[in-house]
């Protein structure tokens, strides 16, 4: 039979492509495969059908079945929802690639830019059940046989990137590595939106697009977006990777899926007594490497000479010049050795991208979160839809393993936004919907998202248990967008200036309905809400039977906020946008979140009775 022909060179190349373990090998084998089958990978629209037709190989067929199943979902409208759209995705991290796959299934032309030319991150990501299900559906097991076998629920970052890169290429996504995005180039003459790249002569610099997705990781913020800082108490994370020789003895050693100090005082006390290492928590995953991530106490790092000098500023404290690399290696090694009961006796560090021992120390004290997830810019009549996904949207706290889960949720939400854009939905509505969904992201947990993983799609309603896609009035959304544009871009916006009054109207409505309450003086949409009394007053004004104002103290801020949040959630179905503790303790209340929340309160109280 032709499809079992062992000498067919394209079959052998396909096998090499599937098994490739470096970014370079994946790209080389893919190019070779395209050559052998005489298919132009740039011909994105017909690439995948041609590949299926010409590569008549049983191993490939099992993969096509999986990809076809995903592609046949009604959301993609047979790959025609976004045929007119051209999307530039910045960053080939897991979230950029996952977004690119969805955009290509929608029928868009997709180009991904990645500044690195290798995937070298050994660190291991915790996967929520839905991400495992999702990746299996994309054929993860075909590319990586060990993928989440048994009860395993993690994968190294590089292995995940490799899987997603292969799927992207098969679906016709153009992925360029070794090219750095340096900014957007505004339309001029007949040209639309383009990107400034390094090297400048890179062919992707000529690509014109109407959708720009930034998945540049950590602190990469494109123009027009603003990050806010969430500052917690000092948290110093250490990651370390050791070579996994895959011996029977290593296989026996139990993983530690998260031991926090509060749950195992004895273990941490013994660790401290025997080694002088003082940790808040530790996680150990056995993957391509033996991977450890731990949160260490500053005092013990100073005592063990890992940190040379004490500074109150976390950046100064962890600056490379203030860290003794050798001592850090010893610290991480000893913590790993002790926590695995000495059962990993030959702990030898794996190498990082720079060929050094793979150990790193990070500051988790300050996390970033984008204020908005989407924007539309317009120049010379050419609109550009912009979206953020992954770590550059919400920076995760790694020990909680939220990075990939929330990253993938945002990738799907973003694809949903691009779908609406492609289908001609008014752009304010597109943005309104995206921002409404974004407000839910930071609260998502495996428990409060749908358990019906098989039904997950880019439609947010299949994933979030409670999502109101039109939670806020269009004029208020436009006010938010306008506010952001005016503040951050400092250019004339194309929105109707009359929409500027959205915030003022909301403020006036709040003032009207909280007037006369003791210790309540609403003058803005941020600080005036800190004590929680204004929210309680609003509830009391509309539903006096729900709350007893006489029992509330102005100083009891957390209680007041928690009470109001609970009533609004229970009685009106409005989920809180932040925790009561955050609202009460936050030095700077996030205006966008409060506007979003209060608008829902306003809508609920002013909705006509059913
Ligand atoms: P990333 O994975 O960070 O990908 C962003 C990509 O964009 C990168 O490949 C980067 O090279 C590229 N890029 C950035 N700027 C440009 C530009 N201007 N032009 C072109 N390309 C650009 N999570 C855990 O759960 N556990 C861990 O131990 C852990 N360790 C980490 C270690 C490091 C060094 C980093 C950076 C992240 C780590 N994370 C860890 C976070 C985790 O990697 C992310 O949550 C996850 O990879 C999803 O990220 P992403 O795709 O949004 O961004």
Helix count?
Answer: 21
The amount of beta strand, in percent, is 15-25%
Sheet with the most strands, sense and barrel status = 6 strands, mixed
User: Judging from the principal axes of the Cα atoms, what is the shape?
Assistant: globular
Bound molecules: flavin-adenine dinucleotide
Any idea what the CATH architecture of the largest domain is?
Answer: 3-Layer(bba) Sandwich
Number of domains: 4
SSE-based structural type: alpha/beta
Report on this model:
Its cofactor is FAD. This is Molecule interacting with CasL protein 1. The chain is of the alpha/beta class and 610 residues long. It contains 21 helices and 17 strands. The protein has helices at 9-19, 23-37, 44-54, 58-71, 94-105, 129-137, 140-143, 157-170, 248-252, 265-275, 298-303, 314-317, 325-339, 403-422, 427-441, 474-489, 501-514, 533-542, 557-572, 580-585, 591-606, and strands at residues 86-90, 109-114, 124-126, 154-156, 174-177, 180-185, 194-198, 211-214, 227-231, 236-243, 256-260, 279-286, 289-296, 359-363, 366-370, 374-379, 382-388. The relative contact order is 0.09. Mean pLDDT is 89; it is low at 482-500. Residues 90-96, 113-116, 121, 123, 125, 157, 180-181, 215-218, 220, 239, 293, 390-391, 396, 398, 401, 403-404, 407 line the site of flavin-adenine dinucleotide.
């Amino acid at each position: 039979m032709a499809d079992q022909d062992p000498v067919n060179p394209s079959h052998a190349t396909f096998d090499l492509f599937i098994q490739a373990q470096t970014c370079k090998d994946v790209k080389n084998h893919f190019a070779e495969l395209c050559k052998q089958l005489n298919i132009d990978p740039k011909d994105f629209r017909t690439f995948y059908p041609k590949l299926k037709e010409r590569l008549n190989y049983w191993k490939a067929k099992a993969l096509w079945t999986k990809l076809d199943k995903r592609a046949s979902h009604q959301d993609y409208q047979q790959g025609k929802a976004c045929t007119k759209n051209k999307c530039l995705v910045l960053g080939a991290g897991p979230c950029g690639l996952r977004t690119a796959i969805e955009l290509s299934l929608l029928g868009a032309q997709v180009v991904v830019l990645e500044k690195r030319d290798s995937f070298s991150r050994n660190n291991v990501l915790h996967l929520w059940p839905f991400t495992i299900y999702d990746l299996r559906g994309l054929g993860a097991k075909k590319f990586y046989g060990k993928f989440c076998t048994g009860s395993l629920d993690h994968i190294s970052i590089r292995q995940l990137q490799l899987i997603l890169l292969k799927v992207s290429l098969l679906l016709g996504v153009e992925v360029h590595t070794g090219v750095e995005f340096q900014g957007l180039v505004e339309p001029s003459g007949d040209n639309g939106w383009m990107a400034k790249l390094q090297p400048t002569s890179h062919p992707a610099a000529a690509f014109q697009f109407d959708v720009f997705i930034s998945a540049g990781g950590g602190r990469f913020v494109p123009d027009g977006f603003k990050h806010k800082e969430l500052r917690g108490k000092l948290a110093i994370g250490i990651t370390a990777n050791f070579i996994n020789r895959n011996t029977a003895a290593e296989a026996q050693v139990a993983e530690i899926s998260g031991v926090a100090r509060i749950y195992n005082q004895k273990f941490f006390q013994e660790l401290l007594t025997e080694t002088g290492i003082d940790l808040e928590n530790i996680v150990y995953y056995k993957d391509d490497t033996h991977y450890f991530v731990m949160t260490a106490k500053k005092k013990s790092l100073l005592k063990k000479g890992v940190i040379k000098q004490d500074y109150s500023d976390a950046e100064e404290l962890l600056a490379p010049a203030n860290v003794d690399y050798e001592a850090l290696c010893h610290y991480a090694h000893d913590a790993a050795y002790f926590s695995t009961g000495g059962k990993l006796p030959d702990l030898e560090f794996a190498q990082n991208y720079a060929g050094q021992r793979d150990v790193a120390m990070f500051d988790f004290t300050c996390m970033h979160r984008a204020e908005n997830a989407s924007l539309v810019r317009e120049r010379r009549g050419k609109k550009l839809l912009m979206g953020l996904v992954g770590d550059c949207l919400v920076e995760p706290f790694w020990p909680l393993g939220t990075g990939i889960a929330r990253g993938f949720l945002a990738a799907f939400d973003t694809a949903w936004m691009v779908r609406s854009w492609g289908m001609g939905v008014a752009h304010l509505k597109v943005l309104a919907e995206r921002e409404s969904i974004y407000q839910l992201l930071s609260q998502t947990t495996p428990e409060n998202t749908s358990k019906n993983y098989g039904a997950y799609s880019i439609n947010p309603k299949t994933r979030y248990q409670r999502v109101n896609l039109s939670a806020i009035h269009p004029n208020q959304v436009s006010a938010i967008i306008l506010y952001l544009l005016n503040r951050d871009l400092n250019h004339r916006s194309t929105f109707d200036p009359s929409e500027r009054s959205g915030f003022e109207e909301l403020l006036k409505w709040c003032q009207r309905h909280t007037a006369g309450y003791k210790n309540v003086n609403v003058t803005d949409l941020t600080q005036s809400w800190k004590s929680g009394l204004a929210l309680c007053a609003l509830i009391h004004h509309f539903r006096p039977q729900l709350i007893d104002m006489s029992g509330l103290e102005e100083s009891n801020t957390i209680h007041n906020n928690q009470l109001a949040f609970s009533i609004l959630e229970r009685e009106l179905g409005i989920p809180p946008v932040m925790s009561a503790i955050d609202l009460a303790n936050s030095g700077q209340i996030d205006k966008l979140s409060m506007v979003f929340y209060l608008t829902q309160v306003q809508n609920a109280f002013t909705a006509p009775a059913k």
